[in-house]
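A favour, since you know our structure tokens better than I do. Go ahead and set the record down below.
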Amino acid sequence: MDLDAYTFVHRRSWDRLDQLASRRKRLTGAEADELVRLYRIGSQQLARLQTRSADPELIAGLSAVLTRARGRALGAQVDTMREIGLFFTRRFPAAAYRAWPWWVSVAALFLAVSTALGAWVAESDSARRHLGIDSDTDELTRPGGAFETYYSEHSHDAFAAKVWTNNASVAAAALFTGVLILPAVYVMFMNAMNLGVSAGLMAEAGRLESFFGFILPHGMLELTAIFVAGGAGLKLGWTLIDPGHETRARALARQGRATAVIALGLVVVLFVSGLLEGFVTPSGWPTAVRVGIGALAELGFLLYVFGLGRRVVRDEEAAAAAHIFGNPAMPAVHVGESPEFPAAPATRTPATTARN
């Protein structure tokens, strides 16, 4: 099957289904019948695309249309608390998992740049001249110096709020300048350079252990959040270059929605990181305890994405492959969809529900 031709032929019916599903005013009887008919046809087409290993982004886009159509047909009411629960148990972890090749690549490059710069600064006097670093950095690197007091010069709650807003701005810059690619690369490089220079100066002073003792408790989760932001932003920018089987505008809108989901989820991740930096990093607890808490937070996030997120994505793909509308034993759940709409009661049909 020629997937491009198949998409071109059926795009108009998918657009019509999306129009009916998104309409705010009440549907007429004829429009309700049309909605159900197009939904059933679209469900069959989704299954065909799945069996032909079509572009996952195309499948996700069609699935989102079918999700809205199903909700409209069944007359579902929005439950705010349920929507919040679905966001954190399905949408955010699934979106972060789908983008993992991008942000893991960003993480690898970021850490490579930081390590190289740190080694250069620690071992080469010319590095300071090229980077404009003062020759006397004792005020920064000595015990009780500026590097360490930075984490304790403000009250814990004020400092946590400060780093939360600062990190959120960095993540937002990486996310939403990613569509232009180069600005996002610049933001990530500057952060990698700052980390590498600090590590190099502390290493030169023989205080690398102290550097990691203050960075790791919050830095593992904080940097991971920034990596996710940078990777999602770059994926958005690449969609503009290579939209796949969709038009550029449609592909960009679809990926933009996924990026927005990641942005909202990272607000919470960075809030947790801010709490760690405000309360755990400057605490008087032993270094092993502080680093251990940070490691647990990082491990929890990775399990959340690669455990829960991967399971959600696989469940959605399996449901799309075996999609059967109206079968109680096989609820209609699509790729990118959460099973948020109740099954239609046996005494009512979707068409009559939509008319009411």
Remarks:
- Confidence is low (pLDDT under 50) at residues 324-356.
- The first helix runs from residue 3 to 22.
- The radius of gyration is 25 Å.
